[in-house]
Amino acid sequence: xxxxxxQHCDFEQKFSMENFDTEHENEWEHTGRLQEVxxxxxxxxxxxxxxxxxxxxxxxxxxxxIGSGPGILSQKILEKYPELNYHLVDKPFAKKxxxxxxxxGTFFVKDLSNGFDKDGLLDSxxxxxxxxxxxxxxxxxxxxKTVYELTHKESVFFISNxxxxxxxxxxYRGLFDFDNFIYLLYTHNFxxxxxxxxxxKTPAYPRISSESLLPDENLTDWNHYMIFKHRI
Length: 232
Ligand SMILES: C[S@@+](CC[C@H](N)C(=O)[O-])C[C@H]1O[C@@H](n2cnc3c(N)ncnc32)[C@H](O)[C@@H]1O
Description:
There is one protein chain. The protein has 232 residues and is of the alpha/beta class. The protein has a single domain (43-230), classed as Rossmann fold (3-Layer(aba) Sandwich), CATH 3.40.50.150. Helices cover 27% and strands 21% of the residues. It contains 6 helices and 7 strands. The chain has helices at residues 11-14, 37-56, 72-80, 92-100, 140-149, 178-187; strands at 62-66, 85-90, 106-109, 125-131, 151-162, 190-196, 223-230. The chain has a 7-stranded mixed beta sheet with strand order 3-2-1-4-5-7-6, with helices on both faces. The longest helix has 20 residues, at 37-56. The protein is globular and about 65 Å long. S-adenosylmethionine binds at residues 22, 27, 67-69, 73, 90-91, 94, 111-113, 131-133, 136-137.
């Protein structure tokens, strides 16, 4: 029996860990990109999707945003709905920016890379938002399981994932292909209720086999914005 070796592969270059940020303590120490018009427009668009979700689910009062960054999206949502009880979870520098900008809501610093401790949080939230976050952590299972525990039958789990076509960073690459991700959520007792397209487009790579549920016109959406609810 022969041992096959991969020839001519510079693993260090191919799988560079330099930008692999889940364990970086200094994330959000530099926040220059937040001033860019394109980013502001993107947050505006995302806020409009969350607002549409709240309009469709008027019982929403308690909101939890995980991997919120410094809270830009939250402030746009709170401008429209200042009465929401809005909790955010991310890293220390994100909280620093949040506080320096006199932001509304309650910010919790937690390390979510391998698990999700519920200390200080409410027993239950009506809306949980994960905006381009789950693909960054080592243990999405622990996060999704905990979100299930922190939600009820009428709660909404709003998740945005980057399309692989925009070459984002992932811990588990194929897990975030459209069908695979919906299956992952299904195994954690969440069912897809709906999907919003993106206002930005990726390069046009062909469909892959794990995207059978994705409509043609959404193939090059920069992000997939998904609404999940408990299935049991
Ligand atoms: C791509 S950013 C998205 C941020 C924000 N949701 C937004 O849309 O601008 C991923 C976020 O996940 C957070 N994150 C990554 N690893 C984390 C960890 N181990 N614990 C807590 N937050 C983490 C980062 O700090 C960052 O804010």
